[in-house]
Design goal:
The protein has 213 residues and is α/β, with parallel strands linked by helices. It contains 10 helices and 6 strands, in the order αααβαβαβααβββααα.
């Protein structure tokens, strides 16, 4: 696999952090960036080998370059893909449509060419177009909707996201906690009483177990 070397990634992050962003680097930050690349590479390797582990969670402090690092890693991976017979595709999931467009612009600027594309309701793209880009950027809601399609034997929405010209995209990076994943459903005593009023004697006799429940 054409994996991005963690030390190379850390050095590129340091250069971008200090030269482009005008921020101060440090040994702990540089080690953190190397750990980010190691984590991404581990996820890629597991996915390529058919291993389905639990999600890996990176929890560095705010302002340590998580989003900037995801963009740089995607750009560096696209660079390595150009000389590989087994290119590695990725998906980045972010909160809003504007965020998705901004991340695509940043990744493409870092790569020096168009290697990333955003897919969202404001500007939907044909499936064939998505498959030509190393990185696909989508919103949290699009990810939730696509995941729901898994209940329909890997629905078309999910297939459209994970497949590209290199096969299956082996890396998914979720930027910030995934929103809209948990639906809150409340059952009150009033709602139960209302349901009980609809249960006739005939229903009670026909469905005793359900009525008891």
């Amino acid at each position: 696999l054409p994996l991005v070397p963690p030390q190379d990634f850390s050095q590129r992050m340091k250069q971008r952090w200090t030269s482009s962003l005008g921020l101060c680097s440090s040994a702990p930050l540089e080690r953190l960036w190397a750990i980010m690349a190691e984590t991404f590479n581990s996820a890629i390797t597991d996915s390529a080998n058919g291993v389905k582990p639990h999600w890996r969670i990176l929890q560095p402090p705010t302002g340590s370059g998580k989003t900037r690092g995801a963009c740089l890693f995607a750009a560096m991976q696209a660079e390595r893909n150009t000389t590989s017979a087994a290119p590695i595709g990725s998906i980045i999931v972010t909160r809003q449509i504007k965020d998705a467009d901004d991340l695509v612009s940043e990744i493409n600027a870092l790569a020096g060419r168009d290697v990333a594309i955003a897919q969202h309701s404001a500007a939907p793209k044909p499936v064939d177009t998505l498959q030509h880009f190393d990185t696909l950027v989508i919103t949290h809601q699009a990810c939730v909707n696509a995941s729901a399609s898994l209940n329909a034997s890997r629905g078309a929405a999910f297939e459209r996201l994970v497949h590209w010209r290199g096969g299956e995209r082996h890396l998914t990076i979720i930027d910030e906690a995934l929103a809209n994943v948990v639906e809150d459903v409340k059952v009150t005593a009033d709602s139960i009483a209302e349901v009980q009023r609809y249960i006739t004697n005939d229903l009670r006799e026909a469905f005793p177990t359900e009525t008891k429940a």
